[in-house]
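Researcher: We're teaching a course module on how sequence relates to structure. For the next exercise, students receive a sequence and then see the predicted structure as tokens, so they can try to spot secondary structure elements on their own. Here is the exercise chain.
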Amino acid sequence: MINGFRAFTKTWTFKILMGILALSFVVVGGSQLDVLSAASGNSVIKAGSREVSAQDFSKAFDNYKKGAQEQSGKAVTNEEAVNEGLHVRILEEMASMESLSSYLEKAGIKPSAKMVVDQISKYPMFFNSITNRFDKDKYTQFLGQQGLTETKFEQLIRDDIAANHFGNAAAAGLKLPRVYGALAASFGMESRDVSLFILSPSNVEQPAQPNDAQLTAFYNENKERLRRPEFRQFSLVTFAPKDLMASITIDEAELKKRYEFKRDTLSQAETRTLVQISAKDAKAAAAAEAALKAGQSPEAAAKAAGGEVVNYDNKPKTAIPDKKIADAAFSLASGAVSAPIQGDLGYAVVKVVSITAGSVPSFDAVKPQLTEEYRQEKATEIVYERVEAFEKARGAGDSIEAAAKKLNLSMVNLPPMTAEGQAVNGQNYAQFAPVIKVAFDQPKGGKSEVQELGNGEYFAVRVNEVVPSEVPALDQVKPQMVQAYMQQKMMDAIRIKADTLSERLRKGEDFKAVAASVKAPVETLKGLDRQTGQQKVGPQIAARVFSAKKGDTFNAQASEFAYVLGRVDTVTAPEANSANVNSVLAQRGLTQATFRDVEDMSRSSTRALLKTKTYPQTAIKALGVTPPAKTDTPASTEKK
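Model: And here is the predicted structure for the students to work with:
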């Protein structure tokens, strides 16, 4: 699992995911820095005027780890992640992003409030599913779930817009010389003819069975690889609203009260398509008004007023940032032009192009939604009551079974499993990582308090059995060890034979004659190219084929019990017309790769300019792991 994490953090997918984490969770701009965090010296990153607190880093780390665990189906502890340096990878990526954002802000690249509002209004998660318009309640709920204020979230959006604008400007006109594409196309389309023969167990002598001394030595060499992990068997009591929703009786009168209460939020607001022309003063605004009323285009009117055109396409009143302009625009008739308006952000004139009347959904139309909400709330209330009653019963001396039975709660005995959720029956329970962690924090016979699982769900566990980690004795695994010994010796024999035959080929012996000496048939593959080579012969053999010159011989492991010996017979350059067509595609690919390099350089350069510092030990403490006993000095001051 840890190796998978390490490999994943080296990919571009990881960098994209880190960008999403920065936007969706906790990377905080300098202007919104928690004063208490700064004062207590618990920052993990300092990039110019910006700092990231230990708490914010911990949230980002947990959310990344959670997503990775869900994708892999395996759990990993913070201790394991820290031991493998995952915290440093995430810390470094966050430091690079903060450095670029801080530098762009210092350079004056600051998106306007309107751009931020427009961007937020595009997120589907903030829209009401019935009215299909921006829902402030959903927006506030999301921020609360992520531990963000509106100011912090808007700073994240502002950073994202600034970085995109900077990236687009840097990429504008970026195009590598076509000769680069031609070279890449020629390289990629080159084909080769190759002769191959395979060495397998049938081409070497069979190894002898091990004696006791040999088997004991082999067992001792591989003892730790045989270690069985600790297993725990535990009982689980759950409290979940979803288990109760079907039994909730619907109160029709209550639904109608909800409908009346939420009528405004359920309604489809009136929307308007309009044009807004900004102006530097009242005189310029009057000129724009006159131009619009005279039938001139908005662009011409804006030019006359020295302002800019802002279009609103079928937007509700709440989508217009300036309240005074919004009030004026929604008081006009269709086709009307306003008088000069002195808004909060300056003067403006608006023209209403069209009006779409608002609507109020009927009770029957929204009844399914209201019913679902009612059931969810009532079920959640019952869960809270049951949790309190369960804890009260436990406090009075009841066992977990007695308390669960008294409240008609389900209690299940889970099969023995490892800390990663792997059960002895082969089933994987990694999706229940929080439950498993609590179980592994308890001793044998230990009973947990009621724990929150999220989404209104709770649980409690009792550990029934603990099977310690152990290495099985040789007598317990003797047949398997004999088999493993024989396989190892067979693989060694094949490898040694492959090396011996390769040496004969290098000395000039005939390829077919060497193959015949071990009774291996020779196969010739013609027209092998880089695009299809890996599919036809596998990545290891393809790598050897295309790294060799004409006439060179090689050997490569093809599988656990097979080696391939080969010779490159011919090397053929691509046909000119095909190479010319593919050079265009190759040129685009190289341009994109170069832009990624520019992006990396932008981040690393801003780190150097700002002398960005990271504090890994503080980050480790934030994850609940005990760091080495030393002062947390900056790990990097000028990352290049």
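Model: If you want an answer key for the exercise: The mean pLDDT is 83. The longest helix spans residues 576-610.
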